[in-house]
Amino acid sequence: MRLLVSIGMILILFQFGFSGDGKPEGKKYGAGTTLTDTTAVSELLGNPQAYAGKKVLIKGRVINACKKRGCWMELAGDKDYQSIRIKVNDGEIVFPFESKGKMALAEGEVEIFEMSMEQTRKYLQHEAECNGDPFDPASVTKPHQMVQIKGTGAVIYQ
User: What is the pTM of this model?
Assistant: First the structure.
């Protein structure tokens, strides 16, 4: 009887994706993660200059990912309507589009880009093309500041 209970428990742990230490398992991308303390997206976006050039660990649900090359994924923040993009060089790491809806940890260096109106239009047009959405250049009325993380690794949980 004990053997059956033990086998049943092992099967349950494998079904829910837990490792032997009780932590949920995920699939590692790139270098994975090395930091242990997470930074809240709201904190980072509230004061991006304090984090510029620093390595951070972000936790959130994957709300979007690049459909073409998997070169970025976007994680939901801890507050409504906030998110942050994790960007990698094409082919360096490939985040699967199917990861949408899954929880993830992502690590990398915080980057801030101040864009001109022309750069903002080009960026938003590119985004629209990647997502298959229409784009109207006249809809851009002010330059954009972009805060993102240059990703070195991530773990996406099943």
Answer: 0.75
